[in-house]
Amino acid sequence: MTKLIVFSNMYPSDQHPTYGIFVKNQVQLLRDEGMDVSVIAIEDPSKGKIAKLQKYMSLFIRGFFSLLKNRKTLNLTHAHYVFPTGMLSYWGKRWFNIPYVVTVHGGDIDQMPKKSKMARKWTERILKKADAVITVGEKLKQDVVREFGVSINKVHVISMGVDQTVFYVMPQELSRESLRLSKEETMLLYVGNVIRAKGIEDLIEAYKQIAYTKEKLSLYIVGSQKDAQFATLVKDRIETLERVHLIGPQPQTTLAKWMSAADVFVLPSHHEGFGLVALEAMAVGVPVVGTNVGGLPHLLKDDAGILVEPHNPSSLAEGIEQALNRSEERYTEVKQRIVEEHSYPVLAEKLKTIYQYVGRS
């Protein structure tokens, strides 16, 4: 039986059920495959320097003692996000000769290395010393190889995948009825963290540009309001708009209903490692409009969705109008093929192959 520790700076809790849910889903997938998986993770999304310092000190202390206790029986460790979380796997290899895999999610190489020379140095060190590097998108793979000098032979593209037992095509009318939404409204939906980098302000501006063209056009912004200051700004922006609603985080089963209820799903991110939430929307069948950043061009290729320019409300408005005006089946063959490529059984086989190759016996 493969025994490993998963380190992550995001993991859900009862108080924050969607915080890093994709990591928890992958852990459960590994356990379902018969692996012995322990988790050392941060479950609190609160911001601030003191809170962050306390969270990471706790993570590193718990991680160190777990490595020490299990040093003789672990096959490998798997870190989600490179720096600073990946330092635990790095030191586990240095101290106890435990191989490790690290998954790159996007911001950990797009943003974190730019914060300081130390962050850049550690990011490169962790990536180069890893026995295997997983990126959730093709562009991230290119960035890891080109910008950090990692051998292309040990970089693998594996998304976090879509749970098809949760995200699947369901009747739109029934979903709206379940959520107590009007059957007459034309509904735009965003799901994700309510932060500036997700392009929420662009989305609100795009909505204002087209609201008068569609009768009963509504916008629902669903997600965690981790940044209180920005969330307040968003509330101020939508205060005078009748059909714009800010909804808190929801369980995944409820999110699937929200997606099914929508006429168009919009992901206006300024940067995006892969765009997992867009994949989940595709699995439900709703038309997707996304910005031309990160992994979204690859995910929405072959007319699987509509790409627009980031930081550009007018382009976003045009993409939304295009999605609303064209008639299409909610679940096309192209969408089905892409969803199957990222299904849990496919991803489980890829992960098992990597673990067997790099893990010690």
Automatic annotation (TrEMBL):
SUPFAM superfamilies cross-referenced by the UniProt entry: UDP-Glycosyltransferase/glycogen phosphorylase
Residue ranges occupied by any Glycosyltransferase subfamily 4-like N-terminal domain in the UniProt entry: 22-163
Enzyme Commission no: 2.4.-.-
Keywords: Glycosyltransferase, Transferase
Matching InterPro entries: Glyco_trans_1, Glyco_trans_4-like_N, Glycosyltransferase_grp1
Every Glycosyl transferase family domain range: 173-330
Keyword Cytoplasm part of the UniProt annotation: no
A GO MF label: glycosyltransferase activity
Pfam families linked to this entry: Glyco_transf_4 (PF13439), Glycos_transf_1 (PF00534)
Name of the protein described by the UniProt record: Glycosyltransferase
Phylogenetic classification of the source organism: Bacteria, Bacillati, Bacillota, Bacilli, Bacillales
